[in-house]
Amino acid sequence: MSSLELLSPAGSLAYLEVAFRLVMAVALAGLLGWDREEKDRPAGLRTYMLVALAAAVFTVLTFEIFETVRQFAGNTDPIRIIEAVTAGVAFLAAGTIIQGRDSVRGLTTGAGMWMAGALGVAVGAGYYLLAIFAALLSFAILRFVHVLVQSDPGRTTKSILIDETEVDEGSG
Q1: For every one of its 172 residues, what pLDDT tens digit does the chain have, with 9 covering 90 and above?
Q2: Are the C-beta atoms of residues 118 and 61 closer than 8 Å to each other?
Q3: Are 112 and 142 in contact, with CB atoms under 8 Å apart?
Q4: Of the candidates 39, 38, 36, 86, which has an alpha carbon nearest to the alpha carbon of residue 59?
Q5: Computed over its alpha carbons, how large is the radius of gyration of the chain?
Q6: What ranges do the domains of the chain cover?
Q7: I need a labelling partner for 53 at 20 to 30 A (CA). Which of 110, 112, 136, 156 fits?
Q8: Please, are residues 65 and 79 in contact by the beta-carbon 8 Å criterion?
């Protein structure tokens, strides 16, 4: 019996419970992200939503993997898998964040990478429905949430041009 079945013996309700948890994480983080978006902060609505979704997926996975391993393997610690993945993905995601004089770019990319790590753990652990639902929520966040923010006529965004031309100082 998995921890999802412990939550709801009917089985199908367990999946509804997980879906509810994921949507609730996205919605609550969306409130915080909306505030950040309104104040024109670098980490906005989509970033907050993706980070909360990934955290919820990792949490559900932790309970599920722990319960599964406890039943079959006894005294092992499967949580180390999640710790290793989150540390590695966080390192990669941090590398996508670029801070300039007046801007920070790449936060949503970093959050998306963290979410991708959560999806990878979910699929690797065999929790396909969790992974599919989380991927669909992530796609909706990335694809459609920015439309809500951009539709605000009073909102201004800063555009910064970064000149990456190289100057050859050695020849002349």
Answers
A1: 455 554 444 444 588 888 888 998 899 888 877 877 777 767 778 888 888 898 888 888 887 877 777 777 767 777 787 888 888 778 877 887 887 877 888 888 888 888 888 888 888 777 888 889 999 998 888 888 877 766 555 555 544 444 455 555 555 4
A2: yes
A3: yes
A4: 86
A5: 20
A6: 3-150
A7: 156
A8: yes
